[in-house]
Design a protein that fits this description.
Layout: H1 7-30, H2 37-50, E1 54-55, E2 72-76, E3 79-81, E4 95-104, E5 107-116, H3 122-140, H4 148-161, E6 165-166, E7 172-174, E8 181-185, E9 202-205, E10 208-210, E11 216-218, E12 225-227, E13 233-235, E14 238-241, E15 248-249, H5 254-260
Helix pairs in contact: 1-2, 1-5, 3-4
Bound molecules: magnesium ion (2 copies).
One magnesium ion binds at residues 110, 173, 204, 206, 237.
Length: 264
């Protein structure tokens, strides 16, 4: 069931998503070699609660009912998504995808960014750049009158043209009072196919892109997902509202870029 949102609901969604953006900005301030992902999680958890919100990922059940134990997902290098924060220090040259969710005023925010740690190789930086570009190409297609397949096609075409893999098993989604609502928003598709996009549709677009093959390996903690070939993966996500003409981006990378500059 797809729920189209009113202007008032979209404003509330934006508040939740701006808090996600500010939380990612706090993470940007401290991310460097030697820091552990558990330390990043503590910062995020406290920042979200200090701002009157709930870190909605914490306790979120997987399909087997296993609750996610942290406020953020931290997926390092070949981990694609849903990495559980741990005590292993980040190393120079790592990348870490941080996915963050909030719940405030009854609405959810959801956004993700892949951070370089220290000095990252040029080929991995290109993966990050291409993935982020594909997110904005997807958003360019998230306008009333187009279809879901136009978003998927835009992401897939850009990433595959650069020789990268597009993850199939995980996709974007509607976002609202629930973090995961209908419809599924695939990062692959055919132009002109799929559900028609209408004003007020709010979705999270989140390309998960691999340097090599897109096939995945599932960890036995019930959450972590890595590339099967061990090559790195990137993940950028914005929550957006479909409008006529141009989508409204509800989440923001502004607070990250104020810290790191526009490096990706
Ligand atoms: Mg997310
Ligand atoms: Mg999401």
């Amino acid at each position: 069931m797809i729920y189209l949102k009113t202007e008032e609901e979209i404003e509330l969604l934006q508040l939740a998503n701006v808090l996600v953006g500010r939380t990612l900005g706090e993470i940007a301030k401290v991310i460097k070699p030697g820091v552990t992902t558990k330390q990043l999680d503590k910062i995020a958890d406290e920042f979200i609660r200090d701002n009157g919100a709930i870190p909605v990922f914490k306790g979120f059940p997987n399909q087997d009912g296993v609750p996610f134990p942290a406020a953020i997902c931290t997926s390092v290098n070949d981990m694609v998504v849903h990495g559980i924060p741990n005590d292993e220090p980040l190393k120079d040259g790592d990348i870490v995808s941080v996915d963050c969710g909030t719940l405030i005023n009854g609405f959810c925010g959801d956004s993700a960014y892949t951070f370089p740690v220290g000095e990252v190789s040029a080929d991995v930086m290109k993966l990050l750049k291409t993935t982020k570009e594909s997110l904005y190409l997807g958003i360019d297609n998230a306008v009333a009158g187009k279809r879901l397949g136009d978003i998927g096609y835009a992401v897939q075409n850009h990433c595959e043209a650069n020789g990268y893999g597009v993850v199939r098993e995980f996709v974007g989604h509607g976002v609202g009072r629930e973090m995961h609502e209908d419809p599924m928003v695939c990062n692959y598709g055919r132009r002109g196919c799929g559900t028609m996009l209408k004003k007020g549709l709010c979705i999270a677009i989140e390309p998960m892109i691999t340097m090599g093959d897109y096939h995945l390996k599932f960890h036995n903690d019930g959450w972590g997902v890595s590339t099967r070939d061990g090559k790195p993966a990137a993940h950028f996500e914005h929550s957006i509202a479909v409008c006529h003409g141009k989508a409204k981006i509800l989440s923001t990378f502004q607070y990250i870029e104020e810290v790191l500059g526009d490096i990706i």
